[in-house]
Amino acid sequence: MLYLSGNHRLEDIQELIKQCAANDRLGQEKLYRKFYPALFLLCRKFFPEQADALEVLNDGMLKVFRNIGQYRDDKGLFFNWVYTVVRNTALDRLKNVKWNNYVDVEEINVPATDNPLAALELADIYKLLDVLPAATRVICILFYLEGFAINEICARLQLSAGTVKWHLSETRSRLRPVLLKYYSKNQGYSG
Length: 191
Description:
- 62% of the residues lie in helices and 0% in strands.
- It is mainly alpha-helical.
- It folds into two domains: 10-94, RNA polymerase sigma factor, region 2, helix turn helix motif (Rna Polymerase Sigma Factor, Chain: A, Orthogonal Bundle); 98-191, Winged helix-like DNA-binding domain superfamily/Winged helix DNA-binding domain (Arc Repressor Mutant, subunit A).
- Helix 1 (10-21) packs across helix 2 and helix 3 (50-66) packs across helix 4 (78-94).
- The longest helix is centred in the N-terminal third of the chain and has 22 residues, at 25-46.
- It starts with 9 loop residues before the first helix and ends in a 9-residue tail after the last helix.
- This is Sigma-70 family RNA polymerase sigma factor.
- GO terms for molecular function: DNA binding; sigma factor activity.
- Keywords: DNA-binding, Sigma factor, Transcription, Transcription regulation.
- Residues 31-99 form the RNA polymerase sigma-70 region domain.
- Residues 124-175 form the RNA polymerase sigma factor 70 region 4 type domain.
């Protein structure tokens, strides 16, 4: 998960929260612009098309503005709350994806500690993710980048464990040739 960087001073955030709670459009715009880069990247992970990512980000921020009174600073950083709201908006949208085209195989074993994306730079990860079909990409992101457990993915996307495991297996098989090409001497990836 991304965290609030040092250039987002706490006083500025508190003032923007107050403005947004008062439905101040300028305050909402400032908050949107302040968090846009990180939140757009989050949405882009799930939606390869820029227009789709932007639409989900806007829907998520609308939820933030409507529910800003529910944020409690004693529960964590404001950015983390906003990030979660936007991520959940993206996941809700993904529930409409056609998942039934995939095999439901319970016996596929996916090692939780073997992350094929762990040694890569963030920019390279986004390029690699573009080779995955949309449904597989979403599950790959949730498992390897967002840290969701298989049972959490099942619950959020209303899928069986076998379907989620199949997508994770598909991730590894589709990324293996790309990763082998990426690492000239097979360094850092055991496939």
